[in-house]
TrEMBL record:
This is histidine kinase. It is an enzyme of class 2 (transferase). Gene3D superfamilies: 1.20.5.1930, Histidine kinase-like ATPase, C-terminal domain. The chain crosses the membrane at residues 20-42, 54-73, 103-124, 130-149, 161-181. Residues 208-272 form the Signal transduction histidine kinase subgroup 3 dimerisation and phosphoacceptor domain. It catalyses: ATP + protein L-histidine = ADP + protein N-phospho-L-histidine.
Amino acid sequence: MRGWPNGRAGVGVIVRRALFLLLGGLAAVPYAVLVLWAVSVWVSPAARTGRDAVVVITVVALALLCLPAFLQVTRDLERTAARALLDVTLPDLRGAADVLRGAVFFAGHVLTGGLTVATVAFVLPVLVTAIVDAVSGGGAVAAFASALFPGFDTAAATGAVVIVSGLVVAGSIAGGLLAPWCADVLLGPTPEERARQAAEREAVLARRTDLARELHDTIGHALTVTSLQATAAARILDTDPEAARAALGEIERIGRRAAGDLDYALGVLRSGEQAAARAPAPTLAALGDLTGDARAAGLDLDLVVSGDLAELPDSLSRELYRVAQEGLTNALRHGSGRTARLEVRVDAHARLELSNPVAPEAPPPRAGRGLTGIRERLAVLQGEVRIESGDGLWRLVATAPLRTGSRR
């Protein structure tokens, strides 16, 4: 349980928990009335012949009074009170197991609330009377105890009152201390529900991570290529209008494709639909289009393919396509000399290697979002990635076993 707060916060906690217990005391009133009536009738000499009827009436009335404990509205009210007065966070549940746990909590709330009301209505007056007796020498408490326990002598009756009062106060205090924990256990999700909710949260976070990675790779690549194409078009607009128009056409084509990627991302964010349902999923079969975009942006790219790309599982081919896309984006954005070499080899493993020259004074590669995304993709594929810079070259090497992919 959480530590008890100090100062004003501690007073506020005590007040709120006392109010919570008093609410239980109000709910306990009909139960207390029924029990007092049944006991008074049972011990009455005039009712000896009608005790069977008293038992039947008591059982039926108690059963009717227990019905609210199993109602959904009761559990909703208990959760509302617990959130407001016990400072606990409780989701709304509708499972079958929630019914019994909610009934147990309601019973505990009524019991401890009844003890709290008894503390206020019985124990505190007895305590005040005992203090007055001690000061004035009176015997009001002893007389009350003797009347309450007529079969005991005065000392034993007084001791019984003290014991009962102590138990009532202890039960009330224990109820206040344990109420938040009980609310969390009995009104909150079960361990199985918590595990399912944690798995759902992890799935949502994983989907968001996938979406962020896709947006970074697709939109980032499109922006890089279009900005380079726009720069080239502006530079040659007067000297070579045809080439400038071709560059503008590439900008339009890549912009439409980026708009489709963005529309997919917005659809996932708005509706929470699974990424696989609508995701654009290019594979290495579209490697020619990707390298064509890079060459149109001014990159002198040497492409080498060894092996049959069609043998790659679709999941592996999709991820390697994104790795190549991010690598070419970095080559366009940070490389020097406007040259690069991309090699894809397929045998027992799939291997993708991209290298491009960098300025000698260029800083070493940092772990940006794109490189982090590459590592995440290869980790899912049980593959390896190596990113290094040296001898005037920036090099990206990604390898993954073919067996980890699926044909979906």
